[in-house]
Amino acid sequence: MKAAKDLFGENPVVIDAPHWEQEWNEKYNATTTHVALFVNDFCLEDCEDLVSEVRKSVSRNSRLDIFFNDGASAESISKWARHMKIDPEIVRARKVTLNFESGKAEEFGVDLDNLPAVRTFNVASGDITEYGE
Fold first, then answer.
1. pLDDT tens, 79-115?
2. Neighbours of 93 (CB within 10 A)
3. What DSSP assignment string belongs to 61-117?
4. What is the pTM of this model?
5. Which fold has domain 32-130?
6. Whole-angstrom Cα Rg for the chain
7. Could you state, in order of their start, the residue ranges of all structural domains in the chain?
8. How far apart are the first and last CA of the chain?
9. Count of CB atoms within 10 A of residue 6's CB?
């Protein structure tokens, strides 16, 4: 403390702002990327490898948004999610979202006749890219 006082005088060496830990956690955990998976609710065994690969690619700062085809029901989406072993806690925490397509395919440039499809959305730039680019 003596050395710090000699070097810095009365200026604090450590600034202990009241909410620094909360602010740091918010920045550390901020979502920077949304990975959008467009899939048919009946694509079970054939989609397992892709879903597994996409889930592994989602980082701490990413969210996986899964969009289901027209005609999907809440029951069929739930069945699909159980089949893919998506933990309900992860869905509650919104790290994975399960959604009806509702026009998102057009926004992401996805042909609904050619599913599954994956796109990546950069929150900062607004850029949408095909998965793996």
1. 999 999 999 999 988 889 999 999 999 999 999 999 9
2. 10
3. TEEEEEEE-TT--HHHHHHHHHHTT--HHHHHTTSEEEEE-TTHHHHHT--TTS--E
4. 0.75
5. Glutaredoxin (3.40.30)
6. 21
7. 32-130
8. 52
9. 8
